[in-house]
Design goal:
With 256 residues, the protein is an alpha/beta fold. Helices cover 60% and strands 8% of the residues. It has a 5-stranded parallel β-sheet with strand order 2-1-3-4-5, sandwiched between helices. Strand 3 (53-56), helix 3 and strand 4 form a beta-alpha-beta unit.
């Protein structure tokens, strides 16, 4: 008999945690799979079984880590995914952000953390699909193409994050003119292409300020800003702190 319950795949190499999450979710009416031989085996099952959600640990005792699967899921774009991990350092956070997950939970977790995040993510992913379908009618483009068009633009941004990109350059990769590209990008991502590009630069800047001793002017140039002042103005707009104060605050916290 076919199981009609919505399927969640939990990719977690700690057997105790995997079984605990499985029990929590099965009590909520989900079917849960937790057994895998490798990351490739997990990916095969994702493609074959069409789950409603993937829950990923980051550091897996397998051939590849959870970020690898996250990158696959970002390109696959057919199922939402969330991370669950005991690591919260800035480098891990920045790696996570590049895969654009739908949620993130730190260990140790509570049952309600799992339940709430799972239900919200599944609901939001469903309505994201509905919203995309509505938007497509305005521009007469196949709805299945939208995620891949936007993903292609995001990948181009990530590949050129240390340089400069014009909106027209991103639009050339799509079927839209610059105006429609900007509108669709903002509807899908929640930020304009310019603000998304700038936000990613600032996030990387924050990581470099925290994890390195590079002079701030070097960080500014590395990120493609013309000068220290330009970087500082943009950084303060996004964080409410100058780069200097941001670094000082972080180091004071570490001393405490």
């Amino acid at each position: 008999m076919i199981n009609s319950k919505p399927l969640i795949i939990v990719i977690e190499d700690d057997s105790i945690i995997a079984h605990d999450i499985k029990e929590i979710l099965e009590n909520e009416g989900f079917q849960v799979i937790i057994d895998f031989d490798s990351t490739e085996h997990a990916i095969e099952l994702i493609k074959e079984l069409n789950p409603v959600l993937i829950i990923l640990d980051i550091n897996l005792n397998m051939d590849k880590d959870g970020i690898y699967i996250g990158k696959f899921l970002l390109d696959y774009d057919k199922v939402p995914y969330m991370y669950i991990t005991s690591y919260s350092d800035s480098r891990t956070q920045d790696s996570i952000k590049t895969t654009r997950p739908y949620g993130y939970i730190n260990k140790p977790y509570r049952d309600i953390d799992i339940i709430t995040n799972v239900n919200i993510i599944i609901n939001n992913f469903h309505h994201r699909r509905v919203d995309i379908s509505r938007t497509i009618k305005e521009h007469e483009i196949n709805k299945d193409e939208i995620p891949f068009i936007i993903k292609k633009s995001i990948k181009h941004i990530e590949d050129n994050i240390y340089g400069k990109i014009e909106i027209s350059e991103l639009a050339l990769q799509t079927k839209w003119d610059t105006f429609h590209f900007s509108r669709m990008f903002k509807k899908y991502v929640g930020l304009s292409p310019y603000n998304y590009f700038l936000n990613r630069k600032i996030e990387i800047g924050k990581t470099l300020l925290i994890d390195t001793d590079f002079p701030i002017i070097d960080i500014a140039f590395k990120l493609g800003f013309d000068n220290h002042s330009n970087f500082s103005v943009r950084f303060k707009k996004f964080t409410s702190h100058s780069p200097e104060n941001f670094r000082k605050i972080d180091r004071v916290k570490k001393i405490r």
